[in-house]
Amino acid sequence: MINRTQQKEIDSYLFKGKAILLFGARQVGKTSLIKNTIRNYPHLWLNGDEPDTNILLENITTDRLKALVGDKKILVIDEAQMVHNIGLLIKRMVDNFPEIQVIASGSSAFELADKTKESMVGRKEEMQLFPFSYQEMVHHTNFVEETRLVPHRLIYGYYPEVVNNPGKEEKILNDLVDGFLYKDILNLEGIKKSSTLQRLVQMLAHRIGSEIKYSSLANDLGINRLTVEKYIDILEKNFIVFSLNAFSKNQDNELKKGRKVYFWDNGLRNRIVKNFTPIELRDDVGALWENFIISERKKKLSQENQYKDTFFWRNTQQAEIDYLEVKNNEIEAFEIKYSPNITVKFTKSFTEKYHPKSTQVIHKENFWDFILTTNV
What we know:
This protein is an alpha/beta fold and 376 residues long. It is 44% helix and 17% strand. The chain has helices spanning 7-13, 30-38, 51-57, 62-69, 86-96, 109-116, 134-140, 143-148, 150-156, 160-164, 169-181, 183-187, 194-206, 214-221, 225-237, 266-272, 285-303, 348-354, 368-371, and strands at 19-23, 43-47, 74-78, 101-106, 124-128, 211-212, 241-246, 259-263, 309-314, 320-327, 330-336, 358-362. The strands form two sheets. It has a seven-stranded mixed beta sheet with strand order 6-8-7-9-10-11-12, with helices on both faces. Strands 2-3-4-1-5 form a five-stranded parallel beta sheet, with helices on both faces. A hairpin with a 5-residue loop joins strand 9 and strand 10.
């Protein structure tokens, strides 16, 4: 079994009087992580995807809830976003039975977080789980083996089932996209035109590493700008994509409202554009590398509980910095290039204006320290 970096963190939250909320896309390993966490404790497992679970928990009284859990130490509610009034239900469990550990998982932060936000203040610990990371695979095998596999990961990504079934990557990614990618999103209120959503996802997949404009996407799709914003926000809250905003201190020549969108998994992105061509034969290597490095870096920051704001930067003369991290007004700037032979100079229009704490080029021969977490 491949150990998850966040296993120690979730173990540390047990029996501290708070519910544990675990977010992440379907098939990233939430169920396996929870099962490993509770394996030594008597527990009750309920699945919010099952209709009878919703009927069982609908308007259940506190006394019946206690009788349902019985002498179990842990109550697990999987796919909890599907349960009506889940926030109030978890609140009652935490308030009335603090000795019982509640663990709730959800594939949609949009649903579960909103349903628990007001009622769970001070009563929860939140965690996000991702597909496997480079550092998790290094700890599972070794540095040399996983680094050799990076070109393969750039194409097929890190979804657990993909990693665990070499030779079947394309079929598994086809099944993942066809089976779950749009399922939860289309179930959300207001998402009616599945073809429009699919076209938007395809446009985003073709534009990783490039600035996107809502108005341009809206025109191409024949919908309004606000709908594009809404759809992208929902894609983020379902852990399909994440975005970087443009960094600006309101200088006249800087982009102030730009945005780039990346996918949490390269394999998912490549399935959406239907291109599994080996890395040596592709013309989008730079975009794939940028997506891989930034997504792995954001996994690292999350897993280490490092709170940094992340951006890209560009001015109206098209000078650009691929990736910035900002904390306590200190800026670290990074250029991301696949080849180590490309000469990179950080533009003076940025460095002389912002005086970054550090600048670094991340390429295929030095990337490991940038994305390896210190947690084991």
